[in-house]
Amino acid sequence: MKSKKDDTLRLALANVERNGGPELEPGVLPPTFCQVHTEVFVPLELDLLGMTELTYAQFHPGASPEEVKAANRRFDATQQYLKMVGFRAEMGLGNNPTGCFVRPGSFITGADAQRPFRGVRTPPTVLALRVPGAAAPIHVGTFHHSFNAPTSRPDEAFKLTSLVDKVKADRLPSGDAAEDSATPLDALAADPADPGWAGCWLLGDTNENPEEEGELVPHPDWTAPEVTDDVHRMHRAKLQPDGSWRSYTDVDEIMHGCRMYDAARWAAHHGQLAALAPTAGRARPDQGGPTRIDRFYMDAFTVQAVEAVHIIPMDGLSDHDVVVVEVSKRKLVEALLRRTVVSLPGWRTRPLLPRVITPSRAEMMRVLAREAPAA
Questions:
Q1: Confidence class of residue 14 from pLDDT cuts 50, 70 and 90?
Q2: What is the pLDDT of residues 134-170, one digit of tens each?
Q3: Is residue 258 part of a domain?
Q4: With bands split at pLDDT 50, 70 and 90, how would you rate the model's confidence at 351?
Q5: Domain range for 352
Q6: CATH of the domain at 363
Q7: Any bridge partners for residue 12, and if so which?
């Protein structure tokens, strides 16, 4: 990937399997953990990193002093590698908590940047961030939806819509637009007053397929003989009366219904077809094969600042690839100010990459193989 431009913010979503594994012995970080940070995360020069498996970097209530020290060592190691400020959610019922890391200077974080968020199997890490030049906050939620309870995932997604509700897409600056636009950006940065609207980014492992229209990666054929993991099939698809199986897509449907946009679909709609490559499952034909379950949702204003989406291969390091979203700082500020940027209509009103322009099978296979298009 090319070096980051001065006007670019680079955001990433990573599901590193079990955060690289346990310590080899107290104080000795596992090789995979170190390799992921030194060979993947650090070279990316990230401004924000959401992690959906911050395993071994958080502790359950009642943990022993040794467990607390080990978790803090792991959490501090990521902050030191990345030179970023970290936030981590409470432990839930599972063993893979979420976390989010933010680069000072790229985003403004106050003492109350992190907001508690409970009532789900794996609590998301929820932050309120600002960017220099805009007073409106961006509500960021890094989540990991339930892998084993398809009926819980819609509930978890609906709970996250409490953050989407803060977008207030119908609100615009009051007064004369020309007069508003004369307000210096540095003055706005110094004024923490909430203008009455916000941005919203929800990034995470959905554990579900996206809606099928316009996708490059087809939904699994759950009746194929290669699919032998019956439990996983029950987690990901519903048996229909005719004996067929239908993939669950509730999370995507809820996000689209709230006028949230998938950054990868946005990039694909603007010519970057590789953004719709699978993020997991390539080595698991028994579970249906490749799937795009790691997704980065953005509100209908700030998604317009997206300039590129990349899928970073993690072969040998994790069972999920890394999703990188590059946004223009200037366009992001404009989107948050809402003077020259208007809300996009709902995705269902103007679907991104409709079937009529879906790439050919040959083009799709080049994307999946990560090959360059023919000249």
A1: very high
A2: 999 999 999 999 999 999 999 999 999 999 999 999 9
A3: yes
A4: low
A5: 8-368
A6: 3.60.10.10
A7: 49, 324
